[in-house]
């Protein structure tokens, strides 16, 4: 399998503070990869560098065999990445429909936009809220809207930053099913705190600790890894 | 969706129909006022595209208005141009100058953007004064009736002038309505709401803002050129900071980010000053109190209140 995304020695320093250090990450086409780690491990900084929101201090990012380290964010999105924000960042004063339509319109036009919007909203279960102002949605529904905006871009690589935060049990189950449905078509990089979700959907798991890759493997391998237990799952492993 | 579109077309087309018909019934005084208001409202429409829809507050639009006015006026006065090519020269000058200023000013945001646009507009104003030998500075120069014959039509005649002003306004309004409903305009609104997010949807926000500024500056310049042509005068006062503040006030009063707001605001403020100056010499006091009251009770502007209370789909 070929790598869709590769990072080499990717690092970010903020004035002496090392946020991410020498990360080599390879995502093969079609896999669902979970990125886990304690708070402050550098997960959001790492994906920020991958999608171009944060400039790396050193190292490279390659997408589909092409070095994209110098590309601005919008061009990386144009290549087929989509990023959903950890802190919901929807267009609060625009309708739910228009939020998703903005995501779809970059690649589609006319009636195709409407059907893509309808489909993405149906996938996350928000089709009945399409006419509402996005800012009036509950926090959990805004998270779902974020995901719908990601889906409407029909990305090759979907980066989700803590998508299940604030979702109800039923919504998490739906989300898990949704990611399962993408398997094989879309490569997914998922930052996630909910371990149940990670075990359910991830093909492989990368553990980040103090900005470094601590371990990488199948969910089973990670679960049994002593270093990971010590650093992250300590109490659960007990 | 189509019913919504039909309502929108009916409302905006209705306004144009009323304005077209108004000239047959209005007394001469208001007839002349309305022609002036339509030209100034076109200027406000241009301003609204950048401020109301894209969320960029410029304090330098007088530069574009004056660029259109002077490129037209100087073209007639010294280039021997007839009105049509002179008007075109004004429009082109506006497009070039707004494009050049956008390249510089869009490196900044927020307050810095306001200051940069203000400074360049002041530089433009001082340039007009500096070349007073040609521009006649503050005093300005008159464009003679004989120079204002467009294809045999005398633009200084009130009826023709009204038609010309109406034509400019109708084009500006339609363009603005079409643009804000088109994908390009939707992205502008999204930039106003959350620029960071727009970028992460894969849009080049810089290019979109550049486009918005050029369209905005070009419409403003067309209004400036038309103003000089229809009312027969070009002067440096139109390049002063006052003429950068006017469209901001009109748009704020009428409703920023609404298609009809610029016209409503211009009409309202024109007659507010006109009527209050008939009552007292301290008319600016009356105007000021009304403006304060409006910002207190209708902070979204008049059309903005209509959108908030009556019709959320108002473009």
Structural features, described:
The complex is a heterodimer of chains A (238) and B (315). Helix content of chain A is 39%, strand content 26%. Chain A has 238 residues and is an alpha/beta fold. Chain A has a domain at 91-154. In chain A, helix 3 (96-105) crosses helix 4 (111-124) and helix 3 runs parallel beside helix 5 (139-152). Chain B has a domain at 26-242. Helices cover 75% and strands 3% of the residues of chain B. Chain B has 13 helices and 4 strands. In chain B, the strands form 2 sheets. A two-stranded antiparallel ribbon of chain B has the order 1-4. In chain B, helix 3 runs parallel beside helix 5 (110-130). The longest helix of chain B has 27 residues, at 205-231. The mean pLDDT of chain B is 91. Chains A and B meet through helix 2 and helix 3 of A and helix 8 of B. Chain B: GO terms for molecular function: branched-chain amino acid transmembrane transporter activity.
Biggest chain-to-chain interface with counts: A-B, 24 and 17 residues
Uncertain segments of chain B = none
Q: What's the quaternary structure here?
A: heterodimer
Largest sheet of chain A: 6 strands, mixed
What is Rg of chain B?
A: 19 Å
* Termini gap of chain A: 37 Å
- Topology as H/E string of chain B? HHHHHHEEEHHHEHHHH
Main location (chain B): membrane
Subcellular location (chain B): Cell membrane
GO molecular function (chain B): branched-chain amino acid transmembrane transporter activity
Keywords (chain B): Cell membrane, Membrane, Transmembrane, Transmembrane helix
């Amino acid at each position: 399998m070929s790598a869709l995304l590769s990072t080499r020695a990717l690092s970010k320093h903020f004035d002496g503070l090392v946020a991410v250090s020498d990360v080599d990450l390879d995502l093969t086409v079609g896999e669902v990869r979970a990125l886990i780690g304690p708070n402050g491990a550098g997960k959001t900084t790492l994906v920020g560098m991958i999608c171009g929101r944060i400039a790396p201090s050193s190292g490279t990012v390659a997408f589909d065999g092409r070095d994209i380290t110098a590309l601005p964010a919008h061009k990386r999105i144009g290549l087929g990445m989509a990023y959903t924000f950890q802190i919901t960042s929807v267009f609060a004063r625009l309708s739910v429909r228009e939020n998703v339509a903005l995501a779809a319109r970059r690649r589609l036009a006319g009636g195709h936009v409407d059907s893509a919007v309808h489909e993405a909203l149906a996938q996350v279960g928000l089709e009945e809220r399409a006419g509402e102002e996005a800012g009036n949605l509950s926090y959990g529904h805004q998270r779902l809207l974020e995901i719908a905006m990601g889906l409407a871009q029909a990305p090759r690589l979907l980066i989700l930053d803590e998508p299940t935060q604030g979702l109800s049990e039923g919504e998490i189950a739906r989300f898990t099913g949704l990611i399962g449905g993408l398997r094989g078509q879309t490569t997914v990089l998922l930052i996630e705190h909910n371990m149940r979700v990670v075990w359910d959907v991830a093909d492989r798991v990368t553990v980040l600790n103090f900005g470094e890759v601590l371990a990488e493997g199948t969910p089973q391998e990670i679960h049994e890894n002593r270093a990971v237990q010590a650093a992250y799952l300590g109490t659960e492993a007990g | 969706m189509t019913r919504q579109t039909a309502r929108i077309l009916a409302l905006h087309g209705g306004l144009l129909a009323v304005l077209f018909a108004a000239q047959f019934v209005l007394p001469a005084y208001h007839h002349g006022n309305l022609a002036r208001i339509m030209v100034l409202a076109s200027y406000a429409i241009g301003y609204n595209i950048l401020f109301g829809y894209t969320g960029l507050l410029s304090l330098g639009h007088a530069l574009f208005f004056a660029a259109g006015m002077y490129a037209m006026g100087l073209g007639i006065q010294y280039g021997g141009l007839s009105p049509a090519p002179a008007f075109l020269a004004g429009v082109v000058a506006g497009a070039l100058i707004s494009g050049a200023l956008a390249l510089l000013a869009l490196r900044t945001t927020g307050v810095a953007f306001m200051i940069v646009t203000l400074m360049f507009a002041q530089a433009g104003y001082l340039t007009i004064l500096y070349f007073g030998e040609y521009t006649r500075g503050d005093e300005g120069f008159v464009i003679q009736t004989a120079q204002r014959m467009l294809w045999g039509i005398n633009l200084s005649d009130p009826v023709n002038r009204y038609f010309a002003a109406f034509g400019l306004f109708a084009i500006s309004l339609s363009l603005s309505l079409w643009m804000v409903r088109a994908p390009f305009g939707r992205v502008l609104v999204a930039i106003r709401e959350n620029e960071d997010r727009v970028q992460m949807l894969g849009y080049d926000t810089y290019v979109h803002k550049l486009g918005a500024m050029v369209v905005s500056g070009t419409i403003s310049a067309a209004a400036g050129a038309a103003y000089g042509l229809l009312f027969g005068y070009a002067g440096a006062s139109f390049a002063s900071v006052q003429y950068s503040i006017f469209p901001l006030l009109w748009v704020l009063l009428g409703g920023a980010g609404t298609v009809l707001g610029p016209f409503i605001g211009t009409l309202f403020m024109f007659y507010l000053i006109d009527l209050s100056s008939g009552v007292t010499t301290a008319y600016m006091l009356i105007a000021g109190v009304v403006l304060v009251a409006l910002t207190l009770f209708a902070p979204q502007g008049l059309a903005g209140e209509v959108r908030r209370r009556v019709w959320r789909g108002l473009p």
